[in-house]
Amino acid sequence: MAEKVDLEPAEEAKSAALLKSKDDAEILLAGYPGAALLITRDCSVERANAKGEGLEALIVHGAIPEIRDLVNKSEGVHTVTATTVTLPSAKGEIILDLTVVPVESGRFLVLARDQTMEKNLRSALVESRQRYKDLVEISSDFCWETSVDGEFQFVSPKGAIGYTADELVNAKAETFIVNPENFTPLPFASRRPLDEVEIWFSHKNGSQACMMLSCVPLYSEAGGTESWCGTRGVCRDVTIERENETALTRARNREQILSYIVSMIRDELEPENMLSAAATASTRALEVAGCRIYRLAGLESFGTAAEYGNTADTGDLNDNLDDLGSNGEVKQFRTGNWTYFVVATHYRNVINGAIGIWISEVSDTRADDLKILLGDIANQLGIANEQIANHERIVALSRTDGMTGLLNRRAFFEEELPRRLSRLARSRETAALFYVDMDNFKKVNDVHGHQAGDDAILFLRDLLMDFSRPGDVIARLGGDEFAMWLDGISPEVTQNRAGALITASQAMAQYSGDPAYPLGISVGVAVYDPKDEESFDGMLARADEAMYAVKKAGKGGFMMAPAPKAD
Fold first, then answer.
1. Which of 28, 198, 208, 449 is the most buried (most CB within 10 A)?
2. Which residues are catalytic?
Protein backbone atom coordinates (compact mmCIF):
# COMPACT_ATOMS: atom_id res chain seq x y z
CA MET A 1 0.00 0.00 0.00
CA ALA A 2 1.43 3.33 -1.06
CA GLU A 3 2.04 5.99 1.55
CA LYS A 4 2.02 9.71 0.88
CA VAL A 5 3.66 12.65 2.62
CA ASP A 6 2.63 16.24 1.82
CA LEU A 7 5.49 18.60 0.79
CA GLU A 8 5.63 22.16 1.95
CA PRO A 9 6.12 24.71 -0.85
CA ALA A 10 9.47 25.69 0.60
CA GLU A 11 10.71 22.10 0.58
CA GLU A 12 9.59 21.63 -3.02
CA ALA A 13 11.33 24.82 -4.05
CA LYS A 14 14.47 23.71 -2.26
CA SER A 15 14.52 20.37 -4.04
CA ALA A 16 13.89 21.97 -7.41
CA ALA A 17 16.60 24.55 -6.82
CA LEU A 18 19.05 21.84 -5.93
CA LEU A 19 18.48 20.07 -9.18
CA LYS A 20 18.56 23.28 -11.23
CA SER A 21 21.81 24.37 -9.67
CA LYS A 22 23.62 21.56 -11.34
CA ASP A 23 23.64 20.60 -14.88
CA ASP A 24 24.08 17.05 -13.88
CA ALA A 25 22.08 15.47 -11.01
CA GLU A 26 24.61 12.71 -10.68
CA ILE A 27 26.24 14.20 -7.59
CA LEU A 28 22.92 14.29 -5.77
CA LEU A 29 22.06 10.72 -6.70
CA ALA A 30 25.50 9.39 -5.90
CA GLY A 31 25.21 10.62 -2.31
CA TYR A 32 22.29 8.25 -1.56
CA PRO A 33 23.44 4.89 -0.13
CA GLY A 34 20.77 2.94 -1.99
CA ALA A 35 19.40 2.99 -5.51
CA ALA A 36 18.39 6.52 -6.61
CA LEU A 37 16.92 7.63 -9.95
CA LEU A 38 15.55 10.79 -11.50
CA ILE A 39 12.56 10.04 -13.70
CA THR A 40 9.95 11.93 -15.65
CA ARG A 41 6.19 11.73 -15.52
CA ASP A 42 6.13 8.91 -18.07
CA CYS A 43 8.72 6.95 -15.99
CA SER A 44 11.57 7.66 -18.34
CA VAL A 45 14.85 7.57 -16.45
CA GLU A 46 16.99 10.68 -16.79
CA ARG A 47 19.67 9.89 -14.29
CA ALA A 48 20.58 6.95 -11.96
CA ASN A 49 23.39 6.28 -9.54
CA ALA A 50 25.45 3.08 -9.71
CA LYS A 51 23.09 1.09 -7.49
CA GLY A 52 20.08 2.33 -9.44
CA GLU A 53 21.21 0.96 -12.78
CA GLY A 54 19.64 -2.42 -12.13
CA LEU A 55 16.42 -0.76 -11.07
CA GLU A 56 16.56 1.42 -14.19
CA ALA A 57 16.49 -1.65 -16.40
CA LEU A 58 13.48 -2.99 -14.56
CA ILE A 59 11.63 0.31 -14.90
CA VAL A 60 12.41 0.50 -18.58
CA HIS A 61 10.98 -2.95 -19.14
CA GLY A 62 7.91 -2.18 -17.04
CA ALA A 63 8.80 -4.77 -14.44
CA ILE A 64 7.87 -2.40 -11.59
CA PRO A 65 4.42 -1.00 -12.41
CA GLU A 66 4.11 0.19 -8.81
CA ILE A 67 6.47 3.09 -9.61
CA ARG A 68 4.02 4.50 -12.18
CA ASP A 69 1.25 4.35 -9.59
CA LEU A 70 3.46 6.17 -7.09
CA VAL A 71 4.31 8.89 -9.67
CA ASN A 72 0.68 9.45 -10.52
CA LYS A 73 -0.29 9.73 -6.86
CA SER A 74 2.65 11.95 -6.03
CA GLU A 75 1.90 14.29 -8.93
CA GLY A 76 -1.78 14.34 -8.27
CA VAL A 77 -1.60 15.34 -4.63
CA HIS A 78 1.90 16.79 -4.73
CA THR A 79 3.18 14.57 -1.91
CA VAL A 80 5.88 11.99 -1.22
CA THR A 81 4.56 8.47 -1.79
CA ALA A 82 6.08 5.15 -0.75
CA THR A 83 5.42 1.42 -1.04
CA THR A 84 7.12 -1.97 -0.73
CA VAL A 85 7.54 -4.21 -3.72
CA THR A 86 8.74 -7.80 -4.05
CA LEU A 87 10.75 -8.70 -7.12
CA PRO A 88 11.81 -12.17 -8.27
CA SER A 89 15.45 -12.97 -8.83
CA ALA A 90 17.69 -15.97 -9.46
CA LYS A 91 18.61 -16.10 -5.74
CA GLY A 92 15.10 -15.59 -4.47
CA GLU A 93 12.82 -12.67 -3.82
CA ILE A 94 14.12 -9.10 -3.45
CA ILE A 95 12.18 -6.75 -1.22
CA LEU A 96 12.48 -3.03 -1.87
CA ASP A 97 11.07 -0.02 -0.07
CA LEU A 98 10.31 2.56 -2.85
CA THR A 99 9.87 6.26 -2.19
CA VAL A 100 8.87 8.83 -4.88
CA VAL A 101 9.58 12.52 -4.21
CA PRO A 102 8.32 15.21 -6.63
CA VAL A 103 11.21 17.63 -7.23
CA GLU A 104 9.80 19.87 -9.94
CA SER A 105 7.00 19.82 -12.45
CA GLY A 106 7.14 16.57 -14.35
CA ARG A 107 10.28 15.21 -12.63
CA PHE A 108 10.47 12.80 -9.67
CA LEU A 109 13.19 11.43 -7.45
CA VAL A 110 12.89 7.66 -6.87
CA LEU A 111 14.70 6.27 -3.84
CA ALA A 112 14.93 2.47 -3.25
CA ARG A 113 16.09 0.70 -0.10
CA ASP A 114 16.81 -3.06 -0.13
CA GLN A 115 14.97 -4.66 2.80
CA THR A 116 15.61 -8.26 1.76
CA MET A 117 18.29 -9.04 4.36
CA GLU A 118 16.53 -7.25 7.17
CA LYS A 119 13.24 -9.03 6.49
CA ASN A 120 14.98 -12.38 6.18
CA LEU A 121 16.78 -11.81 9.48
CA ARG A 122 13.55 -10.75 11.13
CA SER A 123 11.76 -13.84 9.79
CA ALA A 124 14.62 -16.09 10.91
CA LEU A 125 14.51 -14.56 14.38
CA VAL A 126 10.76 -15.03 14.64
CA GLU A 127 11.06 -18.59 13.39
CA SER A 128 13.91 -19.33 15.80
CA ARG A 129 11.98 -17.92 18.73
CA GLN A 130 8.93 -19.97 17.76
CA ARG A 131 11.08 -23.08 17.36
CA TYR A 132 12.55 -22.76 20.83
CA LYS A 133 9.17 -21.91 22.26
CA ASP A 134 7.66 -25.05 20.72
CA LEU A 135 10.58 -27.19 21.89
CA VAL A 136 10.25 -25.93 25.45
CA GLU A 137 6.51 -26.49 25.46
CA ILE A 138 6.63 -30.03 24.11
CA SER A 139 9.85 -31.10 25.83
CA SER A 140 9.68 -33.44 28.81
CA ASP A 141 12.59 -31.54 30.33
CA PHE A 142 11.93 -28.99 33.03
CA CYS A 143 13.06 -25.52 31.94
CA TRP A 144 13.19 -22.81 34.55
CA GLU A 145 14.49 -19.42 35.58
CA THR A 146 14.96 -18.16 39.13
CA SER A 147 15.41 -14.77 40.74
CA VAL A 148 18.15 -13.71 43.13
CA ASP A 149 15.87 -14.93 45.95
CA GLY A 150 15.85 -18.45 44.49
CA GLU A 151 12.18 -18.20 43.48
CA PHE A 152 10.95 -19.58 40.17
CA GLN A 153 10.21 -16.74 37.78
CA PHE A 154 9.60 -18.97 34.78
CA VAL A 155 8.98 -22.69 34.37
CA SER A 156 8.00 -24.89 31.45
CA PRO A 157 4.27 -24.76 30.70
CA LYS A 158 3.91 -28.42 31.66
CA GLY A 159 5.32 -27.85 35.13
CA ALA A 160 7.36 -30.54 36.84
CA ILE A 161 7.43 -33.20 39.61
CA GLY A 162 3.66 -33.32 39.69
CA TYR A 163 3.19 -29.55 40.12
CA THR A 164 1.66 -27.22 37.54
CA ALA A 165 3.54 -24.20 36.27
CA ASP A 166 1.31 -21.90 38.33
CA GLU A 167 2.12 -23.83 41.49
CA LEU A 168 5.86 -23.52 40.89
CA VAL A 169 6.10 -19.88 39.86
CA ASN A 170 7.07 -17.61 42.80
CA ALA A 171 7.81 -20.67 44.95
CA LYS A 172 11.31 -21.16 46.37
CA ALA A 173 13.20 -23.92 44.58
CA GLU A 174 14.77 -25.29 47.75
CA THR A 175 11.36 -26.33 49.10
CA PHE A 176 11.17 -29.04 46.43
CA ILE A 177 14.68 -30.44 46.89
CA VAL A 178 15.56 -33.45 49.03
CA ASN A 179 18.25 -32.44 51.54
CA PRO A 180 18.96 -28.98 50.11
CA GLU A 181 21.61 -28.49 52.80
CA ASN A 182 23.87 -30.80 50.80
CA PHE A 183 24.34 -28.07 48.20
CA THR A 184 26.36 -24.90 48.77
CA PRO A 185 25.17 -22.87 47.03
CA LEU A 186 21.94 -24.34 45.75
CA PRO A 187 22.20 -24.97 41.98
CA PHE A 188 19.05 -22.90 41.44
CA ALA A 189 21.00 -19.92 42.79
CA SER A 190 24.33 -20.70 41.16
CA ARG A 191 26.51 -17.82 39.98
CA ARG A 192 28.57 -20.07 37.74
CA PRO A 193 27.61 -22.50 34.95
CA LEU A 194 26.83 -26.07 36.06
CA ASP A 195 26.48 -29.17 33.92
CA GLU A 196 24.80 -32.51 34.75
CA VAL A 197 24.40 -32.07 38.50
CA GLU A 198 22.29 -34.84 40.04
CA ILE A 199 19.51 -33.62 42.35
CA TRP A 200 16.65 -35.50 44.02
CA PHE A 201 13.29 -33.74 44.19
CA SER A 202 10.23 -34.41 46.32
CA HIS A 203 7.37 -35.29 43.98
CA LYS A 204 3.90 -34.00 44.72
CA ASN A 205 2.66 -37.58 45.18
CA GLY A 206 5.19 -38.17 47.96
CA SER A 207 7.75 -40.10 45.93
CA GLN A 208 11.17 -38.85 44.90
CA ALA A 209 12.41 -37.94 41.44
CA CYS A 210 16.00 -37.75 40.26
CA MET A 211 16.97 -35.04 37.80
CA MET A 212 20.15 -33.93 36.05
CA LEU A 213 20.48 -30.15 36.25
CA SER A 214 22.42 -27.81 33.97
CA CYS A 215 22.31 -24.04 34.35
CA VAL A 216 23.93 -20.69 33.57
CA PRO A 217 23.88 -17.51 35.67
CA LEU A 218 22.04 -14.39 34.48
CA TYR A 219 23.60 -10.92 34.70
CA SER A 220 22.21 -7.44 34.15
CA GLU A 221 24.20 -4.29 33.42
CA ALA A 222 23.53 -1.03 35.20
CA GLY A 223 25.83 1.96 35.40
CA GLY A 224 28.53 0.09 33.53
CA THR A 225 28.58 -2.71 36.16
CA GLU A 226 27.31 -6.27 35.72
CA SER A 227 25.31 -7.73 38.59
CA TRP A 228 23.93 -11.24 39.05
CA CYS A 229 20.15 -11.29 38.69
CA GLY A 230 19.22 -14.97 38.71
CA THR A 231 19.82 -18.36 37.13
CA ARG A 232 18.42 -20.11 34.11
CA GLY A 233 18.58 -23.83 33.46
CA VAL A 234 17.00 -27.12 32.56
CA CYS A 235 16.39 -30.34 34.52
CA ARG A 236 16.20 -33.74 32.83
CA ASP A 237 14.26 -36.45 34.65
CA VAL A 238 16.47 -39.55 35.02
CA THR A 239 14.42 -41.31 37.70
CA ILE A 240 13.66 -44.32 35.50
CA GLU A 241 17.32 -44.60 34.47
CA ARG A 242 18.42 -44.49 38.12
CA GLU A 243 15.81 -47.07 39.08
CA ASN A 244 16.98 -49.32 36.24
CA GLU A 245 20.60 -48.88 37.30
CA THR A 246 19.68 -49.68 40.90
CA ALA A 247 17.72 -52.74 39.82
CA LEU A 248 20.64 -53.92 37.69
CA THR A 249 23.06 -53.40 40.57
CA ARG A 250 20.77 -55.33 42.91
CA ALA A 251 20.47 -58.14 40.36
CA ARG A 252 24.25 -58.34 40.00
CA ASN A 253 24.62 -58.36 43.76
CA ARG A 254 22.07 -61.17 44.07
CA GLU A 255 23.91 -63.10 41.36
CA GLN A 256 27.20 -62.78 43.26
CA ILE A 257 25.59 -63.86 46.52
CA LEU A 258 23.92 -66.86 44.89
CA SER A 259 27.17 -67.83 43.18
CA TYR A 260 28.98 -67.73 46.51
CA ILE A 261 26.37 -69.90 48.25
CA VAL A 262 26.25 -72.42 45.40
CA SER A 263 30.04 -72.67 45.33
CA MET A 264 30.08 -73.32 49.09
CA ILE A 265 27.60 -76.17 48.59
CA ARG A 266 29.50 -77.67 45.67
CA ASP A 267 32.82 -77.49 47.50
CA GLU A 268 31.52 -80.00 50.06
CA LEU A 269 32.48 -83.53 49.06
CA GLU A 270 30.34 -85.21 51.69
CA PRO A 271 26.61 -84.94 50.86
CA GLU A 272 25.64 -84.77 54.54
CA ASN A 273 27.76 -81.60 54.90
CA MET A 274 26.16 -79.78 51.94
CA LEU A 275 23.19 -78.46 53.89
CA SER A 276 25.33 -77.28 56.80
CA ALA A 277 27.51 -75.37 54.35
CA ALA A 278 24.41 -73.92 52.69
CA ALA A 279 22.93 -72.73 56.02
CA THR A 280 26.22 -71.11 57.05
CA ALA A 281 26.84 -69.48 53.67
CA SER A 282 23.24 -68.22 53.39
CA THR A 283 23.31 -66.61 56.83
CA ARG A 284 26.58 -64.84 56.14
CA ALA A 285 25.95 -63.84 52.54
CA LEU A 286 22.38 -62.65 53.11
CA GLU A 287 23.43 -60.87 56.32
CA VAL A 288 20.50 -62.27 58.29
CA ALA A 289 20.24 -63.45 61.88
CA GLY A 290 19.96 -67.13 61.03
CA CYS A 291 19.03 -69.84 58.56
CA ARG A 292 17.42 -73.25 58.90
CA ILE A 293 17.19 -75.93 56.22
CA TYR A 294 14.63 -78.71 56.38
CA ARG A 295 14.23 -82.05 54.70
CA LEU A 296 10.90 -83.73 54.21
CA ALA A 297 11.11 -86.98 56.18
CA GLY A 298 9.14 -89.77 54.55
CA LEU A 299 6.89 -87.30 52.71
CA GLU A 300 5.15 -86.63 56.02
CA SER A 301 6.86 -83.99 58.15
CA PHE A 302 9.70 -81.51 57.90
CA GLY A 303 12.81 -82.25 59.90
CA THR A 304 15.67 -79.85 60.60
CA ALA A 305 18.68 -80.88 58.51
CA ALA A 306 20.95 -77.90 59.24
CA GLU A 307 20.84 -74.49 60.88
CA TYR A 308 23.18 -71.61 61.59
CA GLY A 309 23.11 -68.29 63.41
CA ASN A 310 20.91 -67.03 66.22
CA THR A 311 18.37 -69.82 66.61
CA ALA A 312 16.87 -68.64 69.92
CA ASP A 313 13.09 -68.18 69.93
CA THR A 314 12.67 -69.31 66.33
CA GLY A 315 10.22 -72.12 66.93
CA ASP A 316 7.52 -70.15 65.13
CA LEU A 317 9.26 -70.97 61.86
CA ASN A 318 8.63 -74.69 62.39
CA ASP A 319 4.92 -74.01 62.83
CA ASN A 320 4.56 -72.31 59.44
CA LEU A 321 5.77 -75.03 57.09
CA ASP A 322 2.60 -76.99 56.45
CA ASP A 323 1.04 -74.61 53.92
CA LEU A 324 4.11 -74.12 51.72
CA GLY A 325 3.40 -74.60 48.04
CA SER A 326 5.55 -76.11 45.33
CA ASN A 327 5.30 -73.01 43.10
CA GLY A 328 8.37 -71.37 44.65
CA GLU A 329 6.44 -68.60 46.41
CA VAL A 330 8.29 -67.22 49.42
CA LYS A 331 6.19 -66.83 52.55
CA GLN A 332 6.88 -63.79 54.75
CA PHE A 333 5.53 -63.29 58.25
CA ARG A 334 6.52 -61.70 61.52
CA THR A 335 6.15 -63.09 65.02
CA GLY A 336 8.02 -62.08 68.14
CA ASN A 337 11.31 -60.37 67.39
CA TRP A 338 11.82 -61.82 63.94
CA THR A 339 10.60 -61.37 60.40
CA TYR A 340 10.69 -64.78 58.73
CA PHE A 341 11.06 -65.75 55.08
CA VAL A 342 10.45 -69.40 54.18
CA VAL A 343 10.02 -71.29 50.92
CA ALA A 344 9.74 -74.94 49.97
CA THR A 345 12.50 -76.73 48.08
CA HIS A 346 11.40 -79.13 45.39
CA TYR A 347 12.67 -81.47 42.75
CA ARG A 348 10.56 -82.06 39.65
CA ASN A 349 7.66 -80.19 41.26
CA VAL A 350 7.70 -82.46 44.32
CA ILE A 351 8.47 -80.78 47.67
CA ASN A 352 11.47 -82.35 49.37
CA GLY A 353 12.31 -79.75 52.01
CA ALA A 354 12.31 -76.05 52.89
CA ILE A 355 14.64 -73.20 53.78
CA GLY A 356 13.86 -70.38 56.18
CA ILE A 357 15.74 -67.27 57.27
CA TRP A 358 14.95 -64.64 59.87
CA ILE A 359 15.97 -61.05 60.47
CA SER A 360 15.03 -58.46 63.08
CA GLU A 361 14.26 -55.49 60.80
CA VAL A 362 13.88 -55.36 57.04
CA SER A 363 12.85 -52.70 54.51
CA ASP A 364 10.50 -53.40 51.62
CA THR A 365 13.32 -53.22 49.08
CA ARG A 366 15.52 -55.59 51.07
CA ALA A 367 12.57 -57.92 51.62
CA ASP A 368 12.07 -58.12 47.84
CA ASP A 369 15.75 -58.96 47.34
CA LEU A 370 15.66 -61.61 50.07
CA LYS A 371 12.61 -63.25 48.51
CA ILE A 372 14.25 -63.44 45.11
CA LEU A 373 17.50 -64.79 46.56
CA LEU A 374 15.75 -67.29 48.81
CA GLY A 375 13.79 -68.61 45.85
CA ASP A 376 17.00 -69.08 43.86
CA ILE A 377 18.72 -70.77 46.82
CA ALA A 378 15.72 -73.05 47.28
CA ASN A 379 16.06 -74.19 43.66
CA GLN A 380 19.64 -75.25 44.37
CA LEU A 381 18.73 -76.88 47.67
CA GLY A 382 15.95 -78.85 46.00
CA ILE A 383 18.61 -80.48 43.82
CA ALA A 384 20.94 -80.91 46.83
CA ASN A 385 18.17 -82.57 48.87
CA GLU A 386 17.53 -84.99 46.03
CA GLN A 387 21.24 -85.74 45.72
CA ILE A 388 21.46 -86.39 49.46
CA ALA A 389 18.41 -88.65 49.32
CA ASN A 390 19.94 -90.59 46.43
CA HIS A 391 23.21 -90.86 48.32
CA GLU A 392 21.39 -92.13 51.38
CA ARG A 393 19.56 -94.71 49.28
CA ILE A 394 22.83 -95.91 47.81
CA VAL A 395 24.46 -96.02 51.24
CA ALA A 396 21.45 -97.87 52.63
CA LEU A 397 21.64 -100.42 49.83
CA SER A 398 25.34 -100.92 50.48
CA ARG A 399 24.86 -101.26 54.25
CA THR A 400 21.57 -103.09 54.64
CA ASP A 401 20.07 -106.44 53.82
CA GLY A 402 17.53 -106.13 51.06
CA MET A 403 14.95 -108.48 52.61
CA THR A 404 15.02 -107.52 56.27
CA GLY A 405 16.29 -103.93 56.14
CA LEU A 406 18.86 -104.84 58.81
CA LEU A 407 22.56 -104.03 58.54
CA ASN A 408 24.53 -106.43 56.37
CA ARG A 409 27.74 -108.25 57.35
CA ARG A 410 30.11 -105.58 55.98
CA ALA A 411 28.34 -102.64 57.63
CA PHE A 412 28.07 -104.50 60.94
CA PHE A 413 31.64 -105.69 61.21
CA GLU A 414 33.51 -102.93 59.35
CA GLU A 415 31.57 -99.82 60.38
CA GLU A 416 29.17 -100.30 63.27
CA LEU A 417 31.09 -102.53 65.72
CA PRO A 418 34.45 -100.71 65.47
CA ARG A 419 32.69 -97.37 66.13
CA ARG A 420 30.82 -98.79 69.15
CA LEU A 421 33.92 -100.45 70.60
CA SER A 422 35.76 -97.15 70.34
CA ARG A 423 32.95 -95.42 72.22
CA LEU A 424 32.94 -98.11 74.94
CA ALA A 425 36.66 -97.62 75.42
CA ARG A 426 35.85 -94.09 76.58
CA SER A 427 32.67 -94.79 78.54
CA ARG A 428 34.06 -98.02 80.13
CA GLU A 429 30.61 -99.67 79.92
CA THR A 430 30.00 -103.33 79.10
CA ALA A 431 28.10 -104.68 76.11
CA ALA A 432 27.02 -108.00 74.63
CA LEU A 433 27.25 -109.65 71.22
CA PHE A 434 24.62 -112.26 70.32
CA TYR A 435 25.44 -114.69 67.52
CA VAL A 436 22.12 -116.17 66.33
CA ASP A 437 21.78 -119.06 63.89
CA MET A 438 18.50 -120.65 62.81
CA ASP A 439 18.09 -124.39 63.48
CA ASN A 440 16.67 -126.72 60.81
CA PHE A 441 16.03 -123.84 58.41
CA LYS A 442 16.80 -125.92 55.32
CA LYS A 443 13.83 -128.17 56.08
CA VAL A 444 11.54 -125.13 55.87
CA ASN A 445 12.67 -124.26 52.36
CA ASP A 446 12.66 -127.89 51.20
CA VAL A 447 9.15 -128.64 52.47
CA HIS A 448 7.25 -125.34 52.31
CA GLY A 449 9.25 -123.42 49.72
CA HIS A 450 11.32 -120.26 49.78
CA GLN A 451 8.39 -117.98 50.57
CA ALA A 452 7.85 -119.80 53.85
CA GLY A 453 11.58 -119.53 54.46
CA ASP A 454 11.42 -115.75 53.88
CA ASP A 455 8.48 -115.47 56.30
CA ALA A 456 10.47 -117.37 58.95
CA ILE A 457 13.45 -114.98 58.48
CA LEU A 458 11.21 -111.94 58.87
CA PHE A 459 9.63 -113.46 61.97
CA LEU A 460 13.09 -113.84 63.54
CA ARG A 461 13.94 -110.29 62.56
CA ASP A 462 10.88 -108.97 64.38
CA LEU A 463 11.68 -111.19 67.37
CA LEU A 464 15.21 -109.78 67.65
CA MET A 465 13.91 -106.22 67.32
CA ASP A 466 11.53 -106.91 70.23
CA PHE A 467 14.53 -107.91 72.36
CA SER A 468 16.64 -104.87 71.43
CA ARG A 469 16.47 -101.19 72.31
CA PRO A 470 16.55 -98.15 70.00
CA GLY A 471 20.30 -97.71 70.49
CA ASP A 472 21.15 -101.36 69.81
CA VAL A 473 22.12 -102.90 66.46
CA ILE A 474 20.84 -105.99 64.64
CA ALA A 475 22.38 -107.42 61.47
CA ARG A 476 21.70 -110.25 59.08
CA LEU A 477 25.08 -111.77 58.43
CA GLY A 478 23.84 -113.98 55.62
CA GLY A 479 21.32 -116.77 54.99
CA ASP A 480 19.96 -117.86 58.38
CA GLU A 481 22.68 -116.20 60.48
CA PHE A 482 22.05 -113.02 62.54
CA ALA A 483 23.92 -110.89 65.07
CA MET A 484 22.66 -108.51 67.76
CA TRP A 485 24.71 -105.96 69.70
CA LEU A 486 23.36 -104.62 72.99
CA ASP A 487 25.07 -101.51 74.38
CA GLY A 488 25.48 -100.74 78.08
CA ILE A 489 24.19 -104.08 79.38
CA SER A 490 25.57 -106.07 82.33
CA PRO A 491 26.47 -109.80 82.16
CA GLU A 492 23.54 -110.71 84.42
CA VAL A 493 20.98 -108.84 82.33
CA THR A 494 22.56 -110.28 79.19
CA GLN A 495 22.06 -113.84 80.42
CA ASN A 496 18.45 -113.17 81.35
CA ARG A 497 17.83 -111.54 77.97
CA ALA A 498 19.29 -114.56 76.18
CA GLY A 499 17.10 -116.99 78.12
CA ALA A 500 14.00 -114.97 77.37
CA LEU A 501 14.94 -114.87 73.72
CA ILE A 502 15.20 -118.66 73.54
CA THR A 503 11.82 -119.01 75.19
CA ALA A 504 10.21 -116.60 72.76
CA SER A 505 11.85 -118.29 69.79
CA GLN A 506 9.77 -121.42 70.37
CA ALA A 507 7.02 -119.65 68.44
CA MET A 508 9.13 -120.17 65.30
CA ALA A 509 8.13 -123.84 65.34
CA GLN A 510 5.04 -122.91 63.33
CA TYR A 511 7.29 -122.56 60.28
CA SER A 512 8.99 -125.95 60.77
CA GLY A 513 9.37 -128.26 57.77
CA ASP A 514 9.23 -131.38 59.97
CA PRO A 515 7.99 -131.66 63.58
CA ALA A 516 10.93 -133.91 64.28
CA TYR A 517 13.17 -131.05 63.26
CA PRO A 518 11.51 -127.94 64.71
CA LEU A 519 12.60 -124.49 63.56
CA GLY A 520 14.43 -122.63 66.30
CA ILE A 521 17.64 -120.72 67.06
CA SER A 522 21.01 -121.35 68.65
CA VAL A 523 22.62 -118.35 70.33
CA GLY A 524 26.20 -117.71 71.39
CA VAL A 525 26.70 -114.70 73.65
CA ALA A 526 29.98 -112.87 74.31
CA VAL A 527 30.05 -110.09 76.91
CA TYR A 528 32.49 -107.31 76.09
CA ASP A 529 34.26 -105.49 78.94
CA PRO A 530 36.64 -102.66 77.94
CA LYS A 531 38.89 -103.33 80.92
CA ASP A 532 39.82 -106.72 79.42
CA GLU A 533 41.29 -104.92 76.41
CA GLU A 534 40.04 -107.76 74.24
CA SER A 535 40.62 -107.52 70.51
CA PHE A 536 37.76 -107.22 68.09
CA ASP A 537 38.51 -110.58 66.49
CA GLY A 538 38.82 -112.23 69.89
CA MET A 539 35.31 -111.19 70.89
CA LEU A 540 33.87 -112.45 67.59
CA ALA A 541 35.62 -115.77 67.98
CA ARG A 542 34.20 -116.24 71.52
CA ALA A 543 30.63 -115.60 70.38
CA ASP A 544 31.02 -117.87 67.35
CA GLU A 545 32.46 -120.73 69.41
CA ALA A 546 29.64 -120.42 71.96
CA MET A 547 27.02 -120.58 69.21
CA TYR A 548 28.54 -123.72 67.66
CA ALA A 549 28.80 -125.30 71.10
CA VAL A 550 25.01 -124.92 71.37
CA LYS A 551 24.61 -126.51 67.95
CA LYS A 552 26.70 -129.49 69.01
CA ALA A 553 24.75 -129.80 72.26
CA GLY A 554 21.44 -130.30 70.43
CA LYS A 555 20.41 -126.80 69.27
CA GLY A 556 17.59 -124.62 70.57
CA GLY A 557 19.47 -122.90 73.37
CA PHE A 558 22.09 -120.32 74.25
CA MET A 559 25.55 -120.29 75.79
CA MET A 560 27.46 -117.50 77.51
CA ALA A 561 30.99 -117.46 76.14
CA PRO A 562 33.76 -117.71 78.73
CA ALA A 563 35.56 -114.47 79.62
CA PRO A 564 38.62 -113.76 77.48
CA LYS A 565 41.91 -115.20 78.67
CA ALA A 566 44.48 -112.76 79.92
CA ASP A 567 47.50 -112.45 77.64
1. 28
2. 480
